[in-house]
Write a structure and sequence with these properties.
By secondary structure, the chain is of the alpha+beta class. It contains two helices and nine strands. The chain is globular and about 45 Å long.
Length: 138
């Protein structure tokens, strides 16, 4: 027969293992595998046909800034979000709708992202200067 001590030690090992599994599950990145279309930056509404996009996959972020495409790395923890090594193509595009100006503001806000929130099919990213980007799932 097993002693009470051995049974208790065995139960403790099982509880620690289960607890570790729970920690891993809680650490899942909620942005992983998601795709978004920009709805607005502050009070500026994104043009429908050239709205910037954002995708998260495997620690990488990529998308369109309206005219140019971009990619880089991202990390998230709790409600914190950080982009790094973001690079963007440098194509000149017709600017009849202010696309280039919005693109510059969008890219600058991503580079200074600080927090994010997911709620009801929307993603909000707040830059350190207070600008908020609102996205809808696509």
């Amino acid at each position: 027969m097993l002693s009470i001590r051995m049974k208790t030690a065995g139960l403790l090992v099982v509880l620690v293992a289960l607890s570790a599994c729970g920690t891993v599950l809680r650490g899942v990145d909620p942005l992983e595998g998601t795709r978004w279309t920009l709805e607005s930056i502050g009070s500026t509404v994104a043009p429908g046909d050239r709205a910037p996009t954002l995708e998260f996959s495997g620690g990488k972020a990529r998308g369109s800034a309206g005219c140019n495409s971009f990619q880089g790395e991202y990390s998230s923890s709790s409600n914190k979000l950080n982009f790094s090594d973001l690079m963007m193509t440098l194509m000149a595009c017709p600017d009849s709708e202010g696309v280039m100006e919005l693109e510059q503001e969008y890219f600058a806000a991503l580079q200074t992202a600080g927090q994010f929130e997911l709620s009801e099919g929307r993603l909000s990213i707040t830059a350190v200067d207070g600008r908020t980007l609102i996205f809808t799932a696509r």
